Structures are given as structure tokens and as C-alpha cells.
Amino acid sequence: MNNSIFTVKSLSLFGEGGYRILSEVTCLFSQGGNVILGHNGAGKTSLLHILAGFTKPSVGEVYLGSSYTNYEVAFVFQKPILLRRTVQQNIDFILSVRKNKSNIFIPSKLLERLDLDRKRHNHADMLSGGERQKLALIMALLLNPKILILDEPTANIDLKTESEVESLLFDLKQYHGVHIILTTHIISQAKRLSDNVVYMHEGRISEVTSGDLFFKHPVSEPARNYMNSFLGTEPCY
Predict the structure, then answer these.
(1) Share of the chain above pLDDT 90, in %
(2) Domains delineated in the chain
(3) Is residue 57 within 8 Å of residue 64, measured between CB atoms?
(4) Is 131 strand, coil or helix?
């Protein structure tokens, strides 16, 4: 049985002047937690934007799994995009425009879990970077997604906030049936959240495998070099 949430076939993306950003990308994103790894410039964010429908590929196709609709896909940017309003007004706006009106996630519960309940009347511009990231995640969840795409969701935030966000993502995947696709440079986080790993190198897919297999024995040379580049990481053979 095909449990893919996205199928990517022969996808390429060209930038200005014909610069190749993605080249012949073909892979399946399965249900559960999908983590895309790779060095900066590998094409990870570009691939996420194509999956989310923000960018049209130059060549190739992306197919959303037959069990899902575009309204059930939500995206969280690395740099949160928020309204210049209070936390509560940002939430109220999302509740007013969402297509799926189901109360799968309760705003007050999410605010409490991510320690934003006491700041619901604060202006979003006055929040810290970590707080803005948590608000962006709450707003995405209030769209009631079945698929959540996140670009470096815990980059440049403190360890406490990182732990709060990661814990919520784990629970979403494990207990709420939300399928996740994310990029991260935090290897320990990738290990905890990944059922599947997609490794990208210079705009291409170098390896797609289960999280368990990847972190024990990456097959491709670019993936092995990547893992060996982390201090304290034993060489992968």
C-alpha cells in the first residue's frame, strides 16, 4: 500500500541565468516524520517551497497523496510571517480564514503548552524570536493540517524554546497523525523526529532511507562526509 504524502518525479529548478538549483529530484515522502538534511545551499528550502506550492518547478511534477488536499498542508517559515497585531489578533485572523473549521487544535491549549498564554495581548512585533516562531507554529496548526512543512523550525532560538517546539512536533507526529516534513541542522533533533531521512547534496537527492538506517550507516559518500563533519560524531563506514 502506498503511504506517500508527496511524490516528486524528475524535478528540476533553475534560477536566474539558468543556474541549476535542483536537478532531477525524484523521491517519495512517506507518512510520519520526514527530515531533509544537507549542507547550506543543497536545495532543501527550495524543495520545501515547491512541495508547499510557493514555487513552480522548471521541470518535473509533484503529486500530493490521494488522501490529502491542498488545504490540509501548512507551512512554517524559518523567519515567521506574522501580522502586525497582537498574538490573539493573529490567532483570530487564522480562525476566520481557515477552510477546515474543525476544532482539532484548541488555541488556548496551544498557547499554554508553548508558554504564550500570558502574552496573548502582546504585539507580535514585541515578541522574542523564539516566541514569534512558536506563534507561527500555533497559527499553522490552527489550519488543522494533516501535513506540516517546516523550514529550520528551531534555528536561532534558545534551548528551552527548541525543546518546547520539538516536543510538540514529536507529539503531533506520534499522537495526532500529523505528517511532518522539516529541514534541520541539529542532528540530535533529526534523530528524534525522523522516521525517514532525505539527504540532499548540490541540488540532488543523494540518499533516501529510514532514520534508523541513515544514522547508523549512511550509504552515499556525501551523506557519510556530512555526518562525519560533526564534532563528536564517530566516522560512518
Answers:
(1) 88
(2) 1-68+146-237 (3.40.50.300), 82-144 (no CATH)
(3) no
(4) helix
